[in-house]
């Protein structure tokens, strides 16, 4: 749980009510003063959101956006003075209603819509009986939408990542059948195609080769002992020096049990020119990000001087951020029983597919005020 959410839980006095929370669940509870508060947990039962409920499940599902968590938590900040600095809330523009309207009108059951104005402003409108109850403008700025400054967000991410423990019972182990595979090349390779992000080479593909497995069994036929050899053709995950691109992709993306344990030496490039180096298993990073609701995509960039290079792109549509990791590994180490990859990581970068999230950001500041 981030430092800001810990503070919210303490000030609201709801610690004891959190002991029975379930993973991947949203609950609504009342504080001592009667305020209804919604709390959402991730797969590890860690709280990832606290706020005054303003949006129903349907709109959150149909139109993912970071604006939901921002406004629900911002109203909580306004009402309970959770932050010593409320100045940033002045960036929120009210065309109808005010913070008190959001805190007291019970807007969760109202009709709601979100529009993007000039790729600079989210406009959120609540309506009831064909009448606008509240109309709010939220500037499209990452730190504002995250309700925190970038340094704190980065610090929380690394701290929680290092403390994360993988539940081996819940860890996915991929199994693939021939029906899921498509011919990839004339070299006898097959691919299990996954989603791709923006361009086909940034994808979740996994690569396989068919191998004949022989097994000798002893049996009895007509009363005589006989040894028989059974053959079966099975798809095996590809790990081959002659195919560095496909092997590298498998190491980064595949959950197959045949993939060896991979360690990552990561240099996090943080705000204010700070850096922090950590060494963790790749599975720890992927499992932690998966529980935050992220998806992984990998792009192979090529081999230079015996070094294979690629990009691991971690996307979180619902919360509106991406992580970018530039990764390299000696080709000889691709076949190692314990590969070690080196990476430069950039956290919480603005989304590239801005049409779905923040919209296309202006390349120059015009200085013009936003109106709606």
The overall average pLDDT, rounded, is 85
The gyration radius over C-alpha positions equals 25 Å
Biggest sheet: strands side by side, in what order? 15-14-19-18-17-16
Number of domains: 2
- The helix content is 10-25%
Low-confidence stretches: 352-370
Strand runs, count: 19
The secondary-structure element order is HEEEHHEHEEEHHEEEEEEHEEHEEEE
Total of helices: 8
Separation of termini?
Answer: 36 Å
Beta content comes to 35-45%
Major sheet details: 6 strands, mixed
Question: What general form does the structure show?
Answer: elongated
| Assembly type | single chain
Q: Structural class, please?
A: alpha+beta
List keywords for this structure.
372 residues, alpha+beta, 2 domains, six-stranded mixed sheet, four-stranded antiparallel sheet, 8 helices, 19 strands
Short synopsis of the structure:
This protein has 372 residues and is an alpha+beta fold. It is built from eight helices and 19 strands. It is elongated.
């Amino acid at each position: 749980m981030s430092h800001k959410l810990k503070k919210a839980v303490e000030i609201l006095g709801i610690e004891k009510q959190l002991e029975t929370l379930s993973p991947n669940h949203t609950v609504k509870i009342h504080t001592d003063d009667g305020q209804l508060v919604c709390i959402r947990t991730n797969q590890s039962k860690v709280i990832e959101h606290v706020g005054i409920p303003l949006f129903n499940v349907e709109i959150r599902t149909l139109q993912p956006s970071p604006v939901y968590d921002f406004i629900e938590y911002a109203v909580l900040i306004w009402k309970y003075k959770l932050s010593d600095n409320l100045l940033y809330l002045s960036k929120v523009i009210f065309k109808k209603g005010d913070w008190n309207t959001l805190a007291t009108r019970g807007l969760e059951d109202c009709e709601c819509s979100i529009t993007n104005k000039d790729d600079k402003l989210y406009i959120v409108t609540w309506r009831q009986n064909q009448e606008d109850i509240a109309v709010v403008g939220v500037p499209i700025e990452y730190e504002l939408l995250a309700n925190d400054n970038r340094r704190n967000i980065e610090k929380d991410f690394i701290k929680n990542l290092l403390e994360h423990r993988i539940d081996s019972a819940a860890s996915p182990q991929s199994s693939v059948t021939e029906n899921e595979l498509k011919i990839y090349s004339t070299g006898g390779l097959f691919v299990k195609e996954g989603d791709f992000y923006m361009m086909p080479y940034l994808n979740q593909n996994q690569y396989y080769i068919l191998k004949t497995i022989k097994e000798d069994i002893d049996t009895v036929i007509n009363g005589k002992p006989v040894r028989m050899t059974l053959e079966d053709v099975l798809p095996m995950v590809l790990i081959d020096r002659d195919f560095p691109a496909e092997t590298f992709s498998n190491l980064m993306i595949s959950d197959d049990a045949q993939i060896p344990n991979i360690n990552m030496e990561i240099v996090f490039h943080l705000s204010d020119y700070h850096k922090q180096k950590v060494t963790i298993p790749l599975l720890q990073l992927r499992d932690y990000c998966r529980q935050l609701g992220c998806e992984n995509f990998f792009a192979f960039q090529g081999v230079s001087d015996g070094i294979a290079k690629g990009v691991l792109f971690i996307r979180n549509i619902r919360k509106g951020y991406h992580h970018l990791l530039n990764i390299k590994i000696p080709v000889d180490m691709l076949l190692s029983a314990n590969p070690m990859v080196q990476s430069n990581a950039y956290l919480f970068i603005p989304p590239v597919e801005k049409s779905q999230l923040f919209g296309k950001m202006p390349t120059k500041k015009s200085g013009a005020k936003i109106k709606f």
